[in-house]
Amino acid sequence: MTGRPRTRVLVADDSPTLRQALRVLLEEDPRIQVVAEASDGAEAVAAARSVGPDVVTMDVVMPGLDGLRATEEIMAVAPTRIIVISQLATREQSLAFRALAAGAVELLPKPQAAGPDDLRRWGLAVREAVSLMSEVPVVTRRAAPGATPARAARPRTLDAVGLAASTGGPQAVVAILSSLPARLPLTILVAQHIASGFVDGMRRWFSESTPLEVRVARDGERPRPGCVYLAPPGCNLLWARSGLLATPPCTDSICPSGDALLGSLAEALGPRAGGVVLSGMGEDGARGLLAIRRAGGLALAQSAATSVVDGMPRAADALGAAEARPAPAEVAVLLVAACPAAAG
């Protein structure tokens, strides 16, 4: 084979059946090579150090060293791209989201059934994620020391802000929420691309990071200041012109749509709308953010230096949609500045 080198993958899972299924299905793609397998976290750490894989698929519940601690150790001694693979049970989801916080870049569910067709569909989803993640730079991104803090083009007062995010987005959302005060006269709406089975686990993780209430939105609900709303599984999240929240089913592969969320805020709230496009692949959110900027609202895109994947913020910047590109903690400062009555 000529051209680009094959993506070298380490598969870590305590189930021999799942490891074998992944090996077979991953290597059906000639661009991918499984270079090692591990049946527990300690073996995963050792293999990561010895073979230097491009991508690791990491089960979270394994005997001995679990996937969370293995992720922490790998990111400390042999940093690489880690795709966490988790059951949908509460304990597993908690470990999975903590692994994202420790440096993993993506989260996928385990197959919900064990039939051959189910394993194949699951393996193909993992294969697609491996191919995408192989493009993600292996760096721990930090804001440059001494960098000039981002500033909004002009002061304004907001009623609501929408956050659009994909790969690397949950970490950015947590960084923003953890920097906000308890009494915030602002409604926050989040369109985070994630497998539908993880929405409630994400809500719990976000809730642990902030004094604000975090809820999964209900269709027709009246949004409240000081509350963070997540799109329900399989649905978009919109701010209707009536002032109520709407959660229509997603109609395309991008779910929930950042463009739809931000565009609805621009249409309903005009200059009192805010939008932030956070880390992620592709271009979702760019057009919606441009609508907010044209309406006179606050339009931000996460800085390249702090994004796990700069695709979505860069696309927004290229459209001229972003008036500033702050780090997540700076986003929080700008949001509080747009809410003069906010208090800690």
Automatic annotation (TrEMBL):
Sequence ranges assigned to domain Response regulatory in this UniProt record: 8-125
Chain positions with 4-aspartylphosphate modification: D59
Coiled-coil annotation reads none
Report the EC code(s) recorded for this entry: 3.1.1.61
Which positions are catalytic residues? Answer: S166, H193, D284
Cited CDD domains: CheB_Rec, REC_CheB-like
Domain CheB-type methylesterase span(s) in chain numbering: 155-342
Q: Which UniProt keywords apply?
A: Chemotaxis, Cytoplasm, Hydrolase, Phosphoprotein
SUPFAM superfamilies to which the protein is assigned, alphabetical: CheY-like, Methylesterase CheB, C-terminal domain
- Reaction catalysis annotation: [protein]-L-glutamate 5-O-methyl ester + H2O = L-glutamyl-[protein] + methanol + H(+)
| The protein's enzyme class | hydrolase
SMART domains, A to Z: REC
Q: InterPro entries under this entry? A: CheB-like, CheB_C, CheY-like_superfamily, Sig_transdc_resp-reg_Me-estase, Sig_transdc_resp-reg_receiver
Its name, as the record gives it, is protein-glutamate methylesterase
- Which gene is the coding source of this polypeptide chain? cheB_1
